[in-house]
């Protein structure tokens, strides 16, 4: 199984987003991971639809939008219009997960569910036929550069078993490095988000080496 690498732009230089996007694409990124934070669901604020729309002109890669906002439903259309390809909502961010997932698919986008480290995978049980992706957080969301939480590895294996032969991606987000990547890919993950581990070094050659190191692991 080939593993996709989705650099998180959260660790890029926000003053040079278009250049950073192009650099990471040339350096071997498969998808672009975009972390949207509202200062309410998570204790940090990043960017929203206008910034994603501006970035859209500079890349043809899949835009994997991770919404850390509550409520999410009022903004789904704006993220779809901005150019998101995959829109993922946290199971913890609202009480009507099924409704949010239906809304994302009705907008013609791929739908994902995100689980915080402490959230059990059982919340996925009745939405498996409505989703294209499950994003398992291996840090508490809000910031880049945090340490990987190893307890989640067991959850990855359980989710892998749970999805059976459904075509659902298992994506991992938080503290992914060449050291932690094999723990989650062995358990069944096929998409790896990496922020600080990709953008360290600050330039394209470093990004290329960093992505290659995660892929090789
Ligand atoms: C955290 C974000 C992550 C973050 C990962 O809330 O969802 O996507 O950018 O950063 P690293 O890879 O540095 O842990
Ligand atoms: Zn993320």
Search tags:
8-stranded parallel beta sheet; 8 strands; TIM Barrel; isomerase; binds D-xylitol-5-phosphate; alpha/beta
Question: How would you describe this structure to a colleague?
Answer:
This protein has 217 residues and is of the alpha/beta class. It has a single domain (4-216), classed as TIM Barrel, CATH 3.20.20. Helix content is 33%, strand content 20%. It contains eight helices and eight strands. It has helices at 17-26, 49-56, 76-82, 97-106, 152-163, 181-187, 196-199, 204-216, and strands spanning 4-7, 31-37, 62-68, 86-90, 110-115, 133-137, 169-173, 191-194. The protein has an eight-stranded parallel sheet. α3 links the parallel β3 (62-68) and β4. α2 runs parallel beside α3. The chain is globular, with a radius of gyration of 16 Å. It binds D-xylitol-5-phosphate and zinc ion.
Please render the helix and strand layout as text.
Blueprint: E1 4-7, H1 17-26, E2 31-37, H2 49-56, E3 62-68, H3 76-82, E4 86-90, H4 97-106, E5 110-115, E6 133-137, H5 152-163, E7 169-173, H6 181-187, E8 191-194, H7 196-199, H8 204-216
Parallel strand pairs: 1-8, 2-3, 3-4, 4-5, 5-6, 6-7, 7-8
InterPro entries: Aldolase_TIM, Ribul_P_3_epim, Ribul_P_3_epim-like, RibuloseP-bd_barrel
Binding site for a divalent metal cation: 33, 35, 66, 173
Family: Belongs to the ribulose-phosphate 3-epimerase family.
Short description:
It is built from eight helices and eight strands. It has 217 residues and is an alpha/beta fold.
